[in-house]
Structures are given as C-alpha cells and as structure tokens.
Amino acid sequence: MEKNEGRAVPGAEVLTPPADGAATGTEEEERGNSGTPDSAGNIEDMLNHLEITAEEGEAIDLSGLIEENRASLKWAVIIRVCLKTSFSHTAFFQKMQVACAVAHEVSFRDIDEFTFIAQFMCLGDWKTAMHGGPWLFRRNAVVIEEYDGLVNTETIPLDSIRVWARIMGLSDLVRNPAVARLLASKMGEVLEVQMGMNGVNYGKFVRVYVKINLKKPLLRFVIGGVGPGKEPPKFRVLAGGLMLLWDQHVNIQLKYEHTNYIDVLVSGETPEKDWRLTGLYGESVWRHKHRTWRYLRELSHQANVPWMVLGDMNEILSESEKDGGAPRPLAYMQAFRDCLTDCGLEDLGFIGNKFTWKRGLIRERLDRAVGNAGWSQLFPHAGVHNLTSTGSDHRPILVDTETYASVQSNSNRRRHFEGRWLKEEKVADVVSTDWLHAPPHAPVMSKLSAVHVELHEWDRSVLKAPQKKIKELTRELDQLLSGPMSEDSLQKQKELTRQIEVALEQEEVHYMQRSQANWLLHGDRNTTFFHNYAKGSS
Length: 538
What we know:
This protein is an alpha+beta fold. The protein contains 15 helices and 25 strands. 33% of the residues lie in helices and 21% in strands. It is globular, with a radius of gyration of 29 Å.
C-alpha cells in the first residue's frame, strides 16, 4: 500500500475498476427477453413495470432494529482496488493498515475480489484513510468512499479518487477562492480550496482538493475567459512533480526549485567538501527540449562547487543509446552534448543495463547522472547503477559514492555470530537441535563450532531464501531486458515482473510482521527499513 504524496495518479485516466461481468449488446437483450435478470439494474427495471399493491407498498419500520448495529459501522468505508489481476487480500489489508498508520486494528470484509468493507475503530484512522491519500497498491489507484451500512454497495460509485492539485499562474485579479473553485470544478468535484497557509498566501498559485474521476483524462490546464475581445488565459494544473527525500542526518540546504528541477547544497564534513545536487526532469516534448538545456546553463553559473545532476533527462547523447523506433534527429543529441560541455558536466557512466526506459519494442537511455570535474575529484570511487524496475517504464538509478572503493574480499572474512539471529523465534530451536545432534562426548568447542556452522547454513537456506529468489528473478529479468526485444521476450518480461512483485510483497509482509512497525513511507517500497528495523540494526 502506497501513498502518492498529494499528487494525482499518473495515468489515472486509464485506471478503471474491473468489469462486473455485465453483458453487452445482443447477449443482454436476450437475457432481458428471457426474463432471467442477472444484475441489480435489470431487477430495478422489472420492478418499475410492476403494479405495486397497497400491502406491498407499505414500508416496514426497521429503525428500532438497526440502531444497536449502527455503532459497529460508525467509521466504515468501502474500498475498491483498481487492479485487473488477482492479488493477496491479506497483504493488501496489512499494507493498508501500515500505510494509514492506524492506532487500532482494522477489520475487513470481502465484497468481491477487488472490493472490501473496512471498519475503523476511531475517527482519526477513518479520516486518514478518507483524506490522507491518494492511495496506490501495486501502482494502481485505491478508491475509498464512505459507507453507512444502509446503502446498497452496488449503487456506490467507485470510480473517483481525492487529490490535492495546484492551479498555477494566477494573476492578482483572479487569485481568489471563488475563481479557484470555479476553475477547479472543471477537474472534478471541488472539496476544498487553500489560498495559503498560516495566513500567508502561496503566491501565483492555489491548492485545490478535488475528487477526480478515474475514467476521465487528467486536465493539463484550464481556460478562464476574462471579457470580450481579450484572449482567455490558460492556467496550468500541476498535479504531479518532483520530490527530494533525504536522511535526517544529512544537512541539506535548498537553493532553487522549479517545476523541472530541485537544486540543493549538501554539506560535507568540512566546507571544502560541500557539493551541489540537482534533481532534473527534462522536457519530454521535442519543441520544448531547449528549455531543459537553458535551465542547466542558468544553474551552472550559480555556484562554483562540486556539482552532480541526475534524473530523467528525456534525451540521449548518441544513437547507440537507442534501440528500436525512428532515429533521433542529430540536432537534438548535439544540443544535449553542447549543453553538457558549456556547463562543464560529463556523463558519469553506468553499471548494469544500458537502457533505462522502454516502451514496447523501443528502449533508450534517458536517465543518467552527470557531474563536473570537482565532483568526480571529491568522489573518485563513485559509480552509477542502473537498477531493475518491475512496475515502471523507467529504471531507477543509484549513485553510490563508494562503488569502486577497495574492499576486503569476502573469502578472507571470518564468519561471526550474527546478532540479528537473536531476533528470530526459531533460533533457540536451531541451537538446541544442533547441540543435541553433536556426539555426547565431543569437546564443548567442537559442539560450538558445529552449531556455528549450522546457524550460518540456516541463515543462508531459510532467512535469506526470499532475497535469493528475488535476486535470481531480477537477474533473469535483466538478461531479458538486455537482449533482443520481441513479442515473446515481452511476454516473458511480464511474467517475471509478476513473480518479482509477488516475491517483494511476500518479503515486505514478512518483515512488517517481524518488525511490528506501525508506519510506512508512502509511495515506495521500504523493505530495507523493515529489514533493518526487524534485525535491530544500529
């Protein structure tokens, strides 16, 4: 279960709830003619044509019989997971509770394979579920609506999510709540408008809380007429963006922020080791790519310190970084190369699969890290890793400043007793069993040595088995992604991706249960956090 931090869901216009099995066309007409309705809609149609007798039309008062049950559904919601493939309900329920950081355990009841009733135990948990999203599960939308226990669940529309968005570029005359509400109404049902925070206006934008229909395309801008004879201005709707997260022990100073980049100064051990980091999202529209290079040139003049830029540049440096599709115009690649030269930046290379983006049979290296000479001197052992992605058309990239540092060979390291074993419930059984299996008159040190060997074998074959499986599947997927692209290859990639998703889900649930952690950083997998938390790492 993930939370998309106050942003609309990319591609939400194609996320639709699974079909309910309703027939279409001739089949539906034949069912209707045969008098065998198969849905609540057909039943309603038939009832509307019946003559209701006085006795049948007399309502039965049920109010006195449902009051004592009403409290049990005081904070209930109905949930729809917008997936079209089966998934583990138990895993979803656990992730839902962890993502919402609930204070009390939540009870769930299945309505169908994708729809559930969730009963919260306090108002705070209910509010978090209703308004803390939008929520994602396996990168698909999770729809949540209020449920009072009286309404027929089949009549509750489960096709919208609540998101916070920004309407940008508002001038003084049109920056007011009434205008913002009217403009936002084109996006969907407006739930709230925020002009600022703590008495301070946001500036040339406002924030709106809107209920967006998943079946409709996301708006990129809204147009507001301001009078006859005047060109209506376009106001950009910003429902996505960049995010920079950092460890609390790292000192970050924000220097510049923009729709396409975030520029910060990272403090080193001494002022001489300070360096700049720019997270960049390059313009994807060809006629706008020159803007990306202008941003970089402007940033290059701001400070003369070690500097690294990483992110989705949305451009390649040479034709060798593209496979499939039409050739890239030389002028676009040359503009990218010229920009790097002007800014004193060089490509930092990569480890792993060359192509970081794919769609169908087309692959390109769009994501990369570049740095100036000062940064490379400050981090001479740095390496850029193109990691494997299972749910996105982009690979994540990891910059490790110690990739090429000399390390002691694993073969020369002594195997020690691992403190994390003490966190395992089964460790006492393993030690007892192996101690008893040792010869009765064997020296104590021999018994200890035998137990030590068996503990490492147990660690390898049991505790690390899920990680090993994930690594093997990931390695196999990487080999496919590196090879020739074909329809058969794409089908195998989809199957391996599904297997990796299931293995990751199992591992995440396993560590959540062991760590008993009650929160999850939304929008990303945090197995490492749970792993460390469960092991009691310091």
